[in-house]
Specification:
CATH architecture of the largest domain: Roll
CATH superfamily of the largest domain: Dipeptide-binding Protein, Domain 3
Largest sheet: 7 strands, mixed
Strand order of the largest sheet: 8-9-10-1-11-22-12
Radius of gyration: 27 Å
Strand content: 15-25%
Helix content: 25-40%
Number of strands: 24
Shape: globular
Structural class: alpha+beta
């Protein structure tokens, strides 16, 4: 018995020593809640490879469908179009291997790639292309801000197993650009209500990454590199997109290691400048900020003639310096950073309070006893809704409000969690972009434009943007867009303030980001070459 007890004791000592040795050699665990910890846990359970998973702190999302959104980063990696944009923002072939265009009949013929599969294994066919474009052009129930981009299409037909013919009613200068929209699968969406179907939260595409899971509670969308992708398969195996609303949270996630990459506003980005373990990539964007006026509101229905004059009372340079940390420039045109825009003749306003008072008098406005202008018994008071979690927009709106108040105009900033288009506000602190062809402005500024949420209407603007859309000569197009810029400056619907630089901050383990391309609204488009990115950790 004594011998048995001694043997057990010896075994216990050996087990304890083995355990201590094992603990001593084990690496320290990653901080709880960090991207590394989450991916390590997944790896231990046979899931994601922690060292080759990129966690991106993105935007709030509720839909992943290219037919329903025009500025989503995720749709660009899950779906593919007939065409895609290259680093210079020019459309090049993608699902199509080649195309021809017949000038006499305004007809495109696309030859499609052989052997492409949807992420569920089904074959991609010409019928999927026909289905996608018929939804955009013939489904009257589809509520999409993109529909104006496709109004010149009169027919779409599969003219072979790997051929699609698309006929237009007339020449459309940016049609190749609009053919970059992601193609959706007919076999999953035919007969469905595309605006509300479950596909929008579990998408199936043909692109570089395939959807894996959407953890709505944790705010995390997981995607995996598509091993069957017809072009270069991405180096980074997993992409985790975290849905984040609050700007400060993104910075905190980067600091804690919970995220590997994020678009930050200028002031948060400055906190990482020169900091060990981080890189910063600064992109040019076509993303502007301004107060977009709701022309359906009672106030602007009566006083739309007085929007432009407000430019004289806004010190835009100070806003760029103080709010954007000088990471941007002042705005005078919605297409001023576009090569076919940038007409300096449209830069007609300067910060000049004396000029402001002079122009207000011409318009019939008189200051009341409280220092606020009045006309026809109406105070110059309007409300601008601003989402409370977008700190940079809140700061811009508040500075605008302060400047206008000093000049005699009461712009009331109303903080909301979500934009409410039915609540009767007089506008919102907006952002838009025309990072590719300036025809992207057509749907926003023409009277019947599908993205004209503020119901701006100007017959001259309609005429100029329509003419530019259908003009083949580039010099003539630039002239038309220059005329649009001048007309819009004189009769604006948006009180333009500034263009933003696109500040991306990420782990120094990440490389391959290419800053060549001009990015869009909310600096969308950073993943245009994600297949070239690598993680070294």
């Amino acid at each position: 018995m004594k011998h048995t007890r001694s043997l057990i004791a010896l075994l216990l000592v050996l087990v304890l020593c083995f355990s201590l040795a094992a603990c001593g050699s084990k690496e320290e665990p990653a901080p709880a809640g960090s991207a590394e910890a989450e991916t390590e846990a997944a790896e231990e359970s046979g899931g994601m490879n922690a060292s080759n998973t990129l966690v991106y702190a993105g935007e709030n999302e509720d839909t992943i469908n290219p037919l329903l959104t025009n500025h989503d980063e995720i749709t660009d990696v899950i779906f593919s179009g007939l065409m895609k944009y290259d680093g210079n923002g020019k459309p090049v072939t993608d699902l199509a291997t080649e195309y021809t265009y017949d000038e006499a009949t305004f007809t495109y013929v696309f030859k499609l790639r052989d052997g492409v599969k949807w992420h569920d294994g089904e074959p991609f066919t010409a019928e999927d292309v026909v289905f996608t474009y018929e939804e955009l052009t013939q489904d009257d129930t589809l509520s999409s801000s993109l529909r104006s981009d496709y109004e010149d299409i009169v027919s779409v037909e599969a003219t072979g197993d790997n051929e699609v013919t698309i006929k237009l009613s007339q020449y459309d200068a940016n049609m190749l650009g609009y053919f970059t929209i992601g193609i959706v699968p007919k076999h999953l969406l035919e007969g469905e209500d595309i605006s509300t179907c479950s596909f929008n939260q579990a998408p199936v595409g043909t692109g570089r990454y395939k959807f894996v899971e959407w953890d709505a509670t944790g705010g995390m969308i997981t995607m995996q590199a598509n091993a069957d992708y017809y072009d270069k398969v991405p180096n980074i195996e997993y992409l985790v997109y975290k849905t984040v609303a609050v700007e400060s949270t993104k910075a905190t996630m980067l600091q804690s290691g919970e995220a590997d990459l994020a678009w930050l506003n200028a002031n948060y980005a400055a906190q990482f400048e020169g900091k060990d373990g981080y890189n910063e990539w600064i992109f040019t964007t076509a993303d502007y900020r301004g107060a977009s006026m709701a022309m359906t509101s009672d106030f602007w229905a009566e006083n739309a003639d007085s929007i432009g004059v407000l430019n004289y009372a806004i010190d835009k340079e100070t806003i760029v310096k103080n709010v954007l940390n000088s990471q941007g420039c002042t705005a005078y045109s919605p297409i001023q950073l576009n090569p076919l825009g940038s007409n300096k003749d449209a830069d007609i306003y300067t910060y000049d309070l004396d000029k402001f008072a002079e122009e207000m008098a011409k318009l019939g406005w008189v200051k009341g006893d409280d220092g606020i202008y009045e006309r026809n018994g109406t105070k110059f008071h309007f409300t601008i809704q601003t989402r409370d979690y977008e700190e940079e927009r809140v700061d811009i709106a508040n500075m605008m409000s302060t400047m206008l108040k000093e000049a005699g105009v009461d712009m009331e900033v109303v903080l909301v969690t979500k934009f409410d288009w039915q609540a009767g506000y007089d506008g919102f602190l907006a952002g838009f972009a025309t990072q590719f062809d300036p025809d992207m402005a057509f749907k926003q500024f023409t009277t019947e434009g599908s993205s004209n949420s503020m119901k701006y209407s100007n017959a001259k603007v309609d005429e100029l943007l329509t003419a530019a859309r259908h003009e083949a000569d580039e010099a003539a197009r630039k002239d038309l867009y220059g005329q649009f810029e001048v007309e819009y400056a004189q009769n604006p619907g948006v009180l333009l303030v500034a263009y933003l630089d696109g500040n991306y901050v990420g782990t120094s383990a990440l490389s391959g980001l290419d800053t060549t391309r001009v990015l869009g609204h909310h600096a969308v488009g950073v993943m245009w070459n994600i297949e070239e990115w690598t993680l070294d950790r």
